[in-house]
Structures are given as structure tokens and as C-alpha cells.
From TrEMBL:
<dbReference type="InterPro" id="IPR036822">
    <property type="entry name" value="CutC-like_dom_sf"/>
</dbReference>
<dbReference type="InterPro" id="IPR008567">
    <property type="entry name" value="BKACE"/>
</dbReference>
<keyword id="KW-0808">Transferase</keyword>
<protein>
    <submittedName>
        <fullName>3-keto-5-aminohexanoate cleavage enzyme</fullName>
        <ecNumber>2.-.-.-</ecNumber>
    </submittedName>
</protein>
<keyword id="KW-0479">Metal-binding</keyword>
<keyword id="KW-0862">Zinc</keyword>
<dbReference type="InterPro" id="IPR013785">
    <property type="entry name" value="Aldolase_TIM"/>
</dbReference>
<dbReference type="Pfam" id="PF05853">
    <property type="entry name" value="BKACE"/>
</dbReference>
<dbReference type="GO" id="GO:0043720">
    <property type="term" value="F:3-keto-5-aminohexanoate cleavage activity"/>
</dbReference>
<dbReference type="GO" id="GO:0046872">
    <property type="term" value="F:metal ion binding"/>
</dbReference>
Length: 271
């Protein structure tokens, strides 16, 4: 079985400091949290930027500062979000891709997102995929609903996405696919052989789905973007604490954890 790739989703666009006081929001805090997660065993950081007021931003400049600060500390793979917040325009969302990061997310369909709608029209999915391909950025396909897998496979047919495809099943978002074991199994059975996949279980689905992924040969995403608690009603101390738990479980289950360079090898990323 491949070594386990752990992604730390540090900040997200929705969580606030009042909900999770240890949420990293400034470029320095985000870089510090990325380094702590790297030391704990994460090989990818999924990054959302915030402006000086702590609001989500897709600013090229802020992502640049964050990327440079993380890269000054360690060789973890930096994966900016192109999802941003539900109210960002597609043009805003695409900005961090211009930094030519090694990876970026690519959401492959529209769904409800709490009381909002997360819009991803075919036109913009294709635009995002085309630009990532031109710049040599490896997409992580964000799948919130089963049909989004088919949308990604259509990109492959159109020559806009290379195989093997790397999927992230984001399960448990209110308004989209729930985070049950059956839902994860259905997703895993729906992707072509040779694909790689990770799972981001939202809220209380985080740890159970992570354990399933460790056993099934998938990969794992944890972090405050997806879940701010360590136990029911008990806030996690840091993103790194959530990574440490996955490393411990994985080792107990006999699966080794990938370094960033091993993750690059598994995902076919050339530096
Ligand atoms: N914040 C969500 C609306 C991504 O990062 O690519 C979208 C999101 C997906 O978080
Ligand atoms: Zn995100």
C-alpha cells in the first residue's frame, strides 16, 4: 500500500477566530501552523488566505506572501484553494494559480453549502482546469457530490485534466453529500482504477472517515477548515494536534506516513 499522504487544511474560508481561537489567519500564523503540521507528519497544506480584517481573500499578493513564508520553513507541498469563499468571483478564485504552486484545488460542480450555494459552472471548471494545465499545477479534484466525479472525467476526455486523477472527497458539508461510511465507499468505487484519493470528513465525520481511508489505501485531510474539535465539545489545540492523531492511528494500523517528497512521487508532481 502507498504511504499515507496527510493534508492539513489549516484555515478555510468559513471558520472564525471566535469559533476557534487558534485558527491561523495571518501569513505568519499560517506559515507557523504549516510548519507545525509538517513536523507532525503532514506532506500537503491546503491554504486559504485571509485579509487584514481576517476575512477570506483570494488576493495573489497574500497567497504569494503565505507561499514564500511556508517555503522558507520547509518543503511541504503548498496547495492553495481555488474554491475561496462562496461569494468570491471565479476570476478572484483563480488568482493563486498564477503563482504556479505545485497543486491547487479544483471543485468540479455546484452544490448547496450551508445556507449558500457553491457555484462551479462547466464553463469555469474548464477555465480553471485549462489554466492549471498550462501552468503545470496538479489539480486536486474536490468532490462534494457523486456527479462531480463524472464532471472531472469529462475534463479528462476533453484533454483538460491528466490521469491519474487525484480526488478529494469532501463529505459532510451541510447541503451536500453526508459523511457516512457508505457514502465514502460509493465515492471510492466510482473512480477509475489507478486514481488517487483523499477524504476530508467534515465535523464529526473527520476521524471515522480518515480511519477508513487509512485502511482502504486512500489518503487523509484534517484541519480546522473541516473540523475545529478534538473530541465532541472540546476544541482542538492546533491543526498539528489533528495531524498527530492521524499519524498515531496510521502507525498503529501499520501504514507508514509519506514525507513531502514521497507524496510528490505518489501524486506524480515534478518540482
Ligand atoms: N470554502 C468553500 C466554499 C476549496 O478550497 O477548493 C470551498 C472550498 C473548496 O473550500
Ligand atoms: Zn478549502
Amino acid at each position: 500500500m502507498q504511504k499515507l499522504i496527510i493534508t492539513a487544511a489549516l484555515t478555510g474560508a468559513e471558520v472564525t477566530k471566535s469559533q476557534q481561537p487558534n485558527l491561523p489567519v495571518t501569513p505568519d500564523e499560517i506559515a507557523e501552523a504549516a510548519y507545525a503540521c509538517y513536523q507532525a507528519g503532514a506532506s500537503i497544506v491546503h491554504v486559504h488566505a485571509r485579509d487584514k480584517e481576517g476575512n477570506p481573500t483570494q488576493s495573489y499578493e497574500v497567497y504569494k506572501e503565505i507561499k514564500e513564508k511556508i517555503e522558507a520553513k520547509c518543503n511541504i507541498i503548498v496547495q492553495p484553494s481555488t474554491g475561496g469563499a462562496t461569494w468570491h468571483t471565479p476570476e478572484e478564485r483563480l488568482q493563486p494559480v498564477e503563482l504556479r504552486p505545485e497543486m491547487a484545488t479544483l471543485s468540479c460542480g455546484t452544490c448547496n453549502f450551508g445556507s449558500d450555494v457553491f457555484m462551479n459552472s462547466e464553463e469555469y471548471i474548464e477555465k480553471f482546469a485549462k489554466r492549471m494545465k498550462e501552468l503545470g499545477v496538479k489539480p486536486e479534484i474536490e468532490v462534494f457530490e457523486r456527479g462531480m466525479i463524472e464532471n472531472a472525467l469529462r475534463l479528462v476526455k476533453k484533454g483538460l485534466l491528466d490521469t491519474p486523477v487525484h480526488f478529494d472527497f469532501v463529505l459532510g458539508v451541510p447541503g451536500a453529500c453526508p459523511g457516512t461510511p457508505e457514502d465514502l465507499m460509493h465515492m471510492v468505487r466510482s473512480i477509475p482504477p489507478g486514481s488517487t484519493w483523499t477524504v476530508a470528513g467534515i465535523g464529526r465525520a473527520e476521524t471515522p472517515l480518515a480511519v477508513m481511508a487509512i485502511i482502504l489505501g486512500g489518503h487523509v485531510r484534517v484541519g480546522f477548515e473541516d473540523n475545529i474539535y478534538y473530541h465532541k465539545g472540546v476544541l482542538a489545540e492546533s491543526n498539528a494536534q489533528l495531524v498527530e492523531r492521524i499519524v498515531r492511528i496510521s502507525k498503529e494500523l501499520g501504514r507508514e506516513v509519506a514525507t513531502p517528497d514521497e507524496a510528490r512521487e505518489i501524486l506524480g508532481i515534478r518540482r
